[in-house]
Structure formats: structure tokens, C-alpha cells
Amino acid sequence: MAQTRMRLTDIQLAALARSAFGLASSPQLPGADGSGDTEFEDAEGVLVAVRDHAGLTVREIPRWRSPAAVRAQLGDTSDVAAWVGLPPDDAGRLPARVLALLPVAGTAPDSATVSLAAARWSAAAHGRELVVVPVPVTAADPELAWEDLAAAYGAPLLGSRVEAAAPRTGGLAVMFTGLSGAGKSTIAGRLVELLQEAGRTVTLLDGDEVRTSLSAGLGFSKADRDTNVRRIGWVAGQIAKHGGIAVCAPIAPYAATRTDARRLVEAQAGPGSFVLVHVGTPLAECEARDRKGLYAKARRGEIAEFTGVSDPYEAPTDAEVTLDTTGTSAEVNARRVLETVLAGTAGAQRR
Fold this sequence. Notes:
The chain is of the alpha/beta class. Helices cover 36% and strands 21% of the residues. The chain has 3 domains: 2-58; 67-161, no CATH class; 172-350, 3-Layer(aba) Sandwich (Rossmann fold). The protein has helices at 10-20, 67-74, 112-124, 146-152, 184-197, 207-212, 222-241, 255-269, 283-289, 294-299, 330-350; strands at 2-7, 36-41, 47-52, 55-58, 80-85, 97-103, 129-135, 157-161, 172-177, 202-206, 245-249, 274-279, 321-323. The longest helix is centred in the last third of the chain and has 21 residues, at 330-350.
């Protein structure tokens, strides 16, 4: 019979772990058409389970620790209390031994949700014996009661404090969008300098440079432009997830793709971690500058699908900052964006 190998999502892996640990019934996994055996792997290509005529057999689930393994680590649990989610505001409520259970099903292993929660526990449980265990349960819509979850891992439930929304890491992605010649790269470059002067960790993902490295080989069709912007969004999200600031300056002409980039960043660095800056310099002004001669070539038909001439630019309606470089210096515009960026990072630090 045919054998199929399939890669499971984080949500599916968490469901598989809950089943293997006796926390829930057997999950509905893809490929159940009876046409042959199916091997399931995680994002790293590790074989985690096999389904054949005998049913579903779980081999290993590298990310999640089983309740039995946690109970073995704790040993005598008579003096251990479990707490689900983030630590309480009043750390004095915590006993000498704490089992912190983090419901993070559906997040990647390197998600900021996990690392930030662990850091908050480390600070709150100073002087106590602390065991932090990510568990394959969804915070926003838990698959079992917190009391039952704590009991499975071997300790009575002391309390819970669960925030369903992803935490802010303090990082940001600042994406400039606008026509060719609008002034995006100039303002973005000055913003990077201002952020460095303020002691911030910042990475510049300039449109032209990204084209020659991260997006080498892509053309200028709509599909290739979308791919380029999504790649920039993903990389920017990785930077923001770890607390850095990414400054991006593509043309990014399509609204739906900019929305995808926002989603990619906020999924990794938390709500509000994406700042869209529309450099709304009018087409006539951009064309009058035409430092690279691109508009002239596009008008002669030498460049196909050129934004603003033979291809549309969808002006944003959701930009956090809108600029017009006509008669306004790059310094003034960069400082306007800087105010928004510093306000955003300060807000994240207060959370």
C-alpha cells in the first residue's frame, strides 16, 4: 500500500500531544482516507507518529514534556502548587515550590509568548523552587479545565492568570510604503541613525538591498512583489520578536500584502508591533525627481508593470503615520516617525 508523509502544524502537534498524554481523545489528523500508511512529522522533519492498519502510534513529540516526566522531576509533590499562565501580581501568594504551567498550544517553540512568560516567572519566583512547563493547551480556548490540567501534572491548582492575547516583546517593525522616488529610503536611513543614537537595536531592510539578497531571483509580477513583501514581513517579525526594531522600505503597492506583513509581525511580536508609514509624495513630484530614470523608461514602455504608471499603487487607509516629502525635509519626517516608534516601544515596556 502507498505510504504518505505529512507535516503537522503546531496546532495539530499540540492535539497529538494531548492525546498521547491522556489529556484528550485521539485527534483528527489529515490523510485519513484509508489508502495507505501515513507518517507524520513536525516542522523540523522529525517523525512523530505513524498511522497504519493498527491505528495511530505516537513515536515522539520533541517539544512537549509529558505529565509523567514532569511528575518524575518534581518527586514528592506534597508541597508543590501549580499555577496556570502568568505569575500573580502578588508574588507573596506563591509557595516555596511552584509548578508553572504555560498553555501555549498553537505557538512555535521559539515564540515570544513562551520566553516572555518564563522570564516573568523567573523574576516573580525569586528564592523559590520553580519548574516552568509549556503545556499543549490553548490559552484562549482551553481543551480541559485548569484543575484537571494541574492534576495531570501532579500538583493541586493554586490559581491562574491567563492572557489570551500574545504579549508585546518591545520590538517593532516599521514598514515604509510609497511610490518609487517618494523618499522612503532616505527617511528610513535617517530614522535608523536616530534610533541608533537613542541606543536602540535596529536593522534596516531596504527595498533595493533586499531584492539582491533575500529576494534574489524574484521579478516584478504581482505574485513576485507579494512574495518579496511577505518575506520582508517575516524577517521583520523575527527581529521584532526578539526585541529589536526592523525598518523596512519596500514600495509594497498592494493593501492585502501589507496586511499580510502586519499579521506576520504581530503574530511574532504581539499586537501593535507593526507601524506602517505611508510616504504619500504625489506621483507628479516623484516623477519630477526620477533620479534613476525609471519613470521615463516606464513612460516609453521599457519597464512593464511599473507602480504608478502601468501598475496600480493602493494607498493605505491603515497607516499609523502619513508623510509628504514635498517641501518637508527627511530630518523632519524621520523625527515624526521616531516619535511614533518610541511611543510604541514605551507602551510595550509598560505592559
